[in-house]
Amino acid sequence: MENQQSVLDTIQIRYDSFFEQEKKIAGFILQNYKDVINMTIGDLADASGTSVATVSRFCRKCEVDGFHHLKIGLAKELVLGESEVRVSNDISRKDIGQSLQNILANKIEEMKQTVSLIDEKQLNEILDKIQHAGMVQFVAVGNTIPVALDGAYKLNEIGIPAMAGSIWETQLSFSMTLKKSDVQIAISNSGESKQVVKMVRAARKNGATTIGITNNPNSTIAKEADYHIQTATREKLFMNEFCFSRVSAMTVIEILYLFLTVGQEESYSRLSECENLMADEKI
């Protein structure tokens, strides 16, 4: 599958690695990317309160050949987006209808970008590791914990032993018990969570297979883990600061779950048995 990472996604993925002056440029572009297309490099420097040299350095960090190519990338994304539905990054209760369309369009784009970044060969290897694992541990801290809990629930339903927890010390101690036949799936937005990094290192020390799910392919977790699945987020388009979007990470968990379930007779049987046992409680 072709990597279709856009300029906006690159900016958001690398946001935490930018210097303060570069973050000013990133913030301005994310909030005013339609206007930036018609700006000169000097205009952007003035508008963001930085310098032309800083803008040039920012472009290099975004892996484009200069400000002109940055604008071309933004223009392409704008054309593709507006060819489908006319949306913006505005959310207001004064126009709930349009705001809902804005949110929907950006969440769809998050999922599309996340799927486009998945390496098919690597995904196949990851699925084999999970399918034959003695135990799968999902690790996360903070507002990523619900994603880990959901992942463990899904795998247990189809007969793959899995666990997740909400206390990081307990997760850490469990990661130290993992064996070579086990798998650890570490979920972190930035990929720099110190607690999650410790758990990944503990699992690797015992020979367990480690899989990182993060927004940043250059993060510590992405580099430490045996496998890495990159997610995309558009939260910075709506907010001045990042608020981790669970949609992309949940999409990855759903992808793993579906591949491990569809066409697997044993998985269907386990799922059916589990649902039947729960049926009485749902009445």
Question: What does the model show?
Answer:
This protein is globular. The chain has a five-stranded parallel beta sheet, with helices on both faces. The chain is 59% helix and 7% strand. It has 283 residues and is an alpha/beta fold. The chain folds into two domains: 7-84, Arc Repressor Mutant, subunit A, CATH 1.10.10.10; 120-282, Glucose-6-phosphate isomerase like protein, domain 1 (Rossmann fold, 3-Layer(aba) Sandwich).
Give the helices and strands, then pairings:
Layout lengths: L6 H8 L5 H17 L4 H8 L3 H10 L5 H18 L11 H21 L3 H12 L4 E4 L5 H13 L4 E2 L4 H8 L7 E5 L6 H12 L3 E6 L5 H5 L2 E4 L15 H16 L3 H18 L1
Parallel strand pairs: 1-2, 1-3, 3-4, 4-5
Helix pairs in contact: 2-3, 2-4, 3-4, 6-12, 8-12, 9-10
CATH topology of the largest domain: Rossmann fold
Query: Could you describe the largest sheet, including whether it forms a barrel?
Result: 5 strands, parallel
CATH homologous superfamily (4th level) name of the largest domain = Glucose-6-phosphate isomerase like protein, domain 1
The rough form would be described as: globular
Structural domain count: 2
Rg from Cα: 21 Å
Number of helices: 13
Strands in their spatial order, largest beta sheet: 2-1-3-4-5
Ends apart, CA distance between termini: 44 Å
Please provide the count of β strands.
5
Spans where pLDDT lies below 50 across 5 or more residues: 237-243
Approximately how much beta-strand content do the residues carry?
A: 5-15%
Helix and strand sequence? HHHHHHHEHEHEHEHEHH
